[in-house]
Design goal:
Elements: H1 14-29, H2 40-46, E1 51-54, H3 66-75, E2 79-84, H4 89-93, E3 101-106, H5 111-118, H6 125-135, E4 143-149, H7 158-168, E5 172-177, H8 196-210, E6 213-218, E7 223-227
Parallel strand pairs: 1-2, 2-3, 3-4, 4-5
Antiparallel strand pairs: 5-7, 6-7
Length: 236
Amino acid sequence: MKWKEKLPTNWDAPEDIIEGCIKEQLKILSGYKGNSRANQKKVRESLTPRHAAISLTGEPTLYAPLDELIQTLHKKNFTTFLVSNGTIPEALSKLSEEPTQLYISVSAFNQETFSYACRPHTPHAWKKLNETLSMLPSFKCPTVIRLTLARHLNLKHPELYVRLIEKANPVYVEPKAYMHIGFSRLRLSFGNMPTHREIQDFATQLGDEMGYNILDDVPESRVVLLSRLEKPIKLA
């Protein structure tokens, strides 16, 4: 696979992105207003969104005005949840305003597995991820390491994940099962999807080695939340 796209010279303005997202959110939810079975209190709350996830479609730290986007969202009383693959540490180091919570995805325990599982398009991606992990303790906002784990691929060697996690000293660690959905079905099978019990067992091994406790888990999503805290920080 080759990376053929080029970064734009003219980025969409943060204000346009925010207003556009709110507009589309209201359009998606509009049908609930006329549904007599809908919880009208929740409908009213949904029409005034207050939480922004800067994630999912591509790597958000590629967006040059990221700092301005976070600042603008905070001025509008939004919380910001920044999710990154950690391969552009310089973008994170340039933030003058931290997100409400910073979330780094880690999908491998060593460079060989990282290259095979993630297939990075940028040079020295593993080195840059490790730079990001070493940078995380300098952030004041809550930090999270997400481990997306697939059976027969990266659901092994908890002791090596511990070495990576200890660099970052995150507030939370979130082991989660790979889910057999979307385009991942073209290269992974249903058999790669771990059970919730497997994720719980892996999380327990991580927690025992790091001194993190299990704060919560969600069987439907096959995810476990680890932390040294007794309960999660309430952000809003």
